[in-house]
Amino acid sequence: MKRRSWAEPYKIKMVEPLKMLSKKEREKAIDEAGYNTFLLRSEDVYIDLLTDSGTSAMSDRQWAGLMLGDEAYAGSRNFYHLEETVQTIYGYKHLVPTHQGRAAEHMISKILIKQGDYVPGNMYFTTTKLHQEMAGAKFVDVIIDEAHDPNSEYPFKGDIDLNKLQALIDKVGADKIPYVAMATTVNMAGGQPISLNNLKAVRELTQKYGIDIVHDMTRVAENAYMIQQKEPGYQDKTVAEIVKEINSLTDHATMSAKKDALVNIGGFLATNDQRVFEEARNMVVVYEGLHTYGGLAGRDMEAMAIGIKESVMDEHQKARVGQVQYLGNLLLKQGIPVVKPIGTHGVFLDAKAFYPHLTQDEFPAQTLAAELYIDSGVRAMERGVVSAGRNKETGKHNYPKLELVRLTIPRRVYTQAHMDVVAESVIDVYENAKNARGLKMIYEPKYLRFFQARFEKL
User: Fold this and answer.
1) Among 44, 158, 159, 452, which residue's CB has the most CB atoms within a 10 Å radius?
2) Of the residues 216, 251, 260, 300, which is catalytic?
3) 73 is annotated as an active-site residue
4) Cα(458)–Cα(437) distance, rounded to whole angstroms?
5) What is the DSSP annotation of 256-304?
6) What is the domain partition of the chain in residue ranges?
């Protein structure tokens, strides 16, 4: 059968002009930013692939929803619309809105963790792990080994290794494990999905020991799309049906709605546990705002409710993930070292393979992100030793096996032509990789250093 092209399931109503600096201007800008792409001014960026968090384009229906904002301090009708949407689309019983996902991570960590606990999970995420540690727990990575191999083609590299999880339970005891942290998809592994077959097995094991599952559902609809495409038995299921099934196998969820739900700000904690709900509803008043707004304006909750419904549409996910796959396949055809298979929200460049002459102490991923910006004005994000932070006991760098640069694609923002420009820049940087020098860290903040650290060229 002849291959047919696909196109985005929307048309463009408004555009934002972009500015293109000269190479000399970009060199000056990245130097002033301490070779940290987070510290660049957005107006100096041509194509911004730093993150997909809060950077998506809202639909006309979402923009219309902003006009329906009920800004009452208590009992906003937009809260009840959001609550009903979460219950209907996601299946969780109780909702506590927050200004973004990390606030939900903070609350669930404080509620469930006690000093000396262990939290196993399918690879760490920066803010999640920090909140777990600040609550007194130690994070333990129980993801399958394939997730640490950028060249493995295993389709569900987000899966949990049941033997690793069982070994931790045997070692520390189930009473020291308040929950398993399970993310859909796994960001630090390259946007890799979990399989429902694996989640069902994890659910069976945790129920045997009375251990909860906390679901980081930031990109659950993208994960559901990958299950639909790759897991036997789910080809005839809709994304919405698969999302519901994933959630039904978990107890609590944290959500950064700035990703899947297509809004610029917002999140929530969802749970099926009445006790956890009551505690979170008390905490949110202290840390965020009243339990019916949680740090959000009514209009933001309305846009979120509409965005959740749009996010589980099959045609949306086909185009969203399809654009990521398009960029990834362009790079694979040119022999560029990327994490395989291509994930759902970004293409992850293997900085170790780009710069085999640089050690991790010379920050190859941070170097690669800076070089990409200098070459073309494309802003990407480091996901390697800088993001991994320091060992709490020794004070030394954590050295992850994966040293990556993430090209994160915002939803409904860029065209295929933008992806072509990005691919050409990556190829040029790769062809000149042998000339790259590493970096030295000259300023390091206490927490989440990748946001604000500064570097200089060696």
Assistant:
1) 158
2) 216
3) yes
4) 6
5) ETTSTT--SS-EEEEES-HHHHHHHHHHHHHHTS-TTTTT--HHHHHHH
6) 23-52+314-457, 60-311
Question: Which residue out of 35, 92, 124, 125 is catalytically annotated?
Answer: 125
Concerning whether 126 is annotated as a catalytic residue, the answer is yes
Q: Would residue 238 show up in a list of annotated catalytic residues for this protein?
A: no
Domain 60-311, CATH:
3.40.640.10
Whole-angstrom Cα distance, residue 260 to residue 245?
A: 17
Tens-place pLDDT, residues 131-189: 999 999 999 999 999 999 999 999 999 999 999 999 999 999 999 999 999 999 999 99
Say if 23-52+314-457 and 60-311 have the same CATH topology.
Answer: no
Among the listed residues 383, 411, 412, 449, the single catalytic one is: 383
Rounded Cα distance between 381 and 366, Å, is 8
What is the residue-averaged pLDDT of the chain? 96
Q: Is the pTM of this model over 0.85?
A: yes
* Catalytic residue list contains 216: yes
Q: Which residues contact 429 (CB under 8 A, 6 or more apart)?
A: 354, 368, 371, 372, 375
Residue 3 has pLDDT above 90, yes or no: no
Q: What mean pLDDT comes out for the span 205-212? A: 98
At residue 2, does pLDDT exceed 80?
no
Residue 434 has what DSSP assignment? G
Q: Given a cut of 70, is residue 194 above it in pLDDT? A: yes
380: buried, middle or exposed (CB in 10 Å: 19+, 13-18, 0-12)? buried
**Catalytic: which of 157, 259, 299, 340?**
259
β 212-216/252-256 pair status: parallel
Query: Catalytic site residue 4?
Result: no
Q: Which of 51, 55, 126, 254 is catalytic?
A: 126
125 is catalytic: yes
Cα–Cα distance for residue pair 138/132, rounded to 1 Å: 7
- Helices within 312-347 (DSSP H only): 314-333
pLDDT digits (tens, 9 = 90+) for 388-426: 999 988 999 999 999 999 999 999 999 999 999 999 999
| Residue 41 known to be catalytic | no
Q: One of 46, 354, 450, 455 is an active-site residue; which one?
A: 450
The backbone torsions φ and ψ at residue 146, rounded to the nearest 5 degrees and listed phi first, read -60, -25
